[in-house]
Structure formats: structure tokens, C-alpha cells
Amino acid sequence: MTEAATQTASTATATAAWTGIRLRELSVPNRVWLSPMCQYSADEYGAPTDWHLAHYGARAAGGVGMVFVECTGVAPDMRTTTGDLGLYTENQLEGHRRLANAIRTIGSIPALQLGAAGRKSSHGVPWDNTGTRSPLAPENGGWQPIGPSPVPFADLAVPAEMTAADGARVLGDLEQAARYAHRAGYEALEFHGANGYLLHEFLSPLANHRTDEWGGDLEGRMRFPLEMVRALRSGWPEDKPLLLRLPAEDLMDGGLTVEDMLQVASRMTAAGVDMVDLSSGALSPAARRLTEPLHNAAYGPRFRAAGIRTAASGLLTEAHQLDEAIPGLVDAVLVGRAILRDPYWALRARNAEPRESWPKQYHRAF
């Protein structure tokens, strides 16, 4: 390859992260998005506060194509902590409407991650003395978790095994939360089906020991998760994209494999999911942790080869890693901790002429 051709290829790769992508009827201006990162700062009713407006407003001004608001519980007992956002009351809806409008007005596309924590719920917030591994008892404001089987996450409370009535209630909660998300003005929706939360629990044989129609082989363990996706899709408009965060594998002996998850992702796509957002491990503290940069994005080519549009997060902290990830590994990236530290990380990573990329209110800084 000539030097000129090499420079042209390098330029094309370097700009791929900043090209647009279309998901159903939504046009996203670039492929660098804010990953949902819990703030544990909801008010006493589970609604967004001024903290959320300031936090997400700064990131909306920071150059990302979409701002994904943190994992938001679809029911009181589907939160991880009492500080989680919720979206199951009209009061919460009004707070989310204000937040989504602020993100849009300031300069990004408002998106929301919904969550159903299952057994991984009713614990302390990360910065207090209880933390995420210690249960919060009902007498202290906690609740009884539910899950596919009475198998606890670490030292959290043993979940009650879900009944058919529990399942019907959860599906109703999912559909309602999706409808609320649309009414609030969010333009994309992601469901958190990884990191040991309810959908992941049903999929993994390490957490799902059922012998009924919701357990057994992969087909059985996938049955309720597919119902969850269909419930979300039924409450979410056809013209708006639905994303699903999934584990690429459990990283534990006897757990979900990449081959399993390729089957799951294909079925989820057929059920109405427009993009899979890859995570890995985290079903249990015993799961192996991957520590190399872009470790989740590295799974991307296998999923994309199956015709699945794919995004990923995980240890993406340097601008040059965007060129490694897009377009070679995934279709989009979600950046979390780096943008927690610096709301303008994406603008710095883009390294464009400041007056063409930064908010006009900041032009006199350059």
C-alpha cells in the first residue's frame, strides 16, 4: 500500500466512530454513546432530581450521539437500591420527561435503560457501609427479591422463586415502563439483560434451576426472557429502536457460552431487538473478570457475522481505542467511566476544530 493510500485508510478508520447510524426511524449522529451509569441519587419516590439534570445535561453537551440514562427499575422490587431511578408512577414519568427534554435541548438524543434486577436487588449503595454485596432488610427499607430459583447473588437475600403470577406481573411492568418511556420523550430504549439481572438469571443454568417450562435446556431458559422482550416491544413504538444488553458469556464453568449467546441474540433480534449491547461475566462475584481494553467489543465480530447489530462497553478510555473498535469490532460503543470523569471526553477524543464541534457557549475558551 502506498503512503497516500495508507493515510487515506487511516483517516477513514479514524472518522468511523463519528459517522451516523440509523436504528429504525432514529438517526444517531455518531456512534459514541454515554453508557448507563447508576447515580443512586433518585428522590424518595424514585424520580430524577436536580443532580440528574446537571449530570446528564453536562454529558449531553459533551459530544456523544446518545445519552443513555442509568438503569431504571420497572417496579419497586426490580430496583437494586432505594436510590435507583424508577419508571412505574406518573410522578416519576414527569421527572423523566423533564430529564429527556433537557438532554435533547442541550444537544444529544435522550435514551433510557430499563432494568429488572431480580435476585440482585435490595442492597446498599456503593459508597455506604453496606455496599452492593450486603442485603438491605425489609425493616430497613428493603424488600424480598424474586428470581427464577432460590439461588442468591453472593451474600444478598435468597430470592423467592417466581410463580406464574409473578411472571405475569413482571411482564406487565415491562410493558408499562416502555409506554412511560415513550411518553417521557426518550427516543431509544435499552433493557439491561446482563450483569446478573433478571433476564440474565433466567438464561444462565447457574442461576436458573427450574424444571418447568421456564427452565431446563437453553430453549426453556430462554422462554421467559423472550416474553420479556416481547412485552417491552409491545409497549414501545414500532418506529423507535430497542436495544438489549446481553452477556457474551458467563466466564464461569458450566455457565453460558458464546455459542449459547449467539443463539439467544439471534432469537432476541427476531423478537424485535435492533441492537445487542455486549457485556460479559458478572452473573456472580466468582465470575472471571476480563481486564484488557475493549474486552467486550472483542466479541463483536462473532455476533455481527450472525447478522446482529452490535455495540459494547468496557474499558474504553483512550481516543485511539475508538478507531480499534469501529468499524472493525462493533457498530457503536458505550463509554462509561471515562465520561464520568470528564463529560467532554467525546469532544476531546473527536479532536475536531473546536468551533465546529464544541457548544457555541464555550467557543471563547479556544
Provide the descriptors you would attach to this structure in a database record:
single chain, 366 residues, alpha/beta, TIM Barrel, 8-stranded parallel β-sheet, two-stranded antiparallel sheet, 12 helices, globular, disordered N terminus
Number of helices: 12
| CATH second-level architecture | Alpha-Beta Barrel
CATH class: Alpha Beta
Full CATH superfamily name:
Aldolase class I
Low-confidence stretches: 1-13
Instruction: Return the average pLDDT rounded to an integer.
Output: 94
Shape: globular
The largest pleated sheet is described as: 8 strands, parallel
Q: Which class of secondary structure composition applies to the elements? A: alpha/beta
Describe this protein's structure.
The protein is of the alpha/beta class. It has a single domain, classed as Aldolase class I (TIM Barrel), CATH 3.20.20.70. Helices cover 35% and strands 14% of the residues. The protein has helices at residues 3-15, 50-60, 90-106, 164-184, 198-203, 218-235, 258-270, 300-305, 319-325, 337-341, 345-350, 354-357; strands spanning 21-23, 26-28, 32-34, 66-73, 109-115, 146-147, 160-161, 188-192, 242-247, 275-279, 310-312, 332-335. β1 and β2 form a beta hairpin. It is globular, with a radius of gyration of 20 Å. The two termini are 38 Å apart.
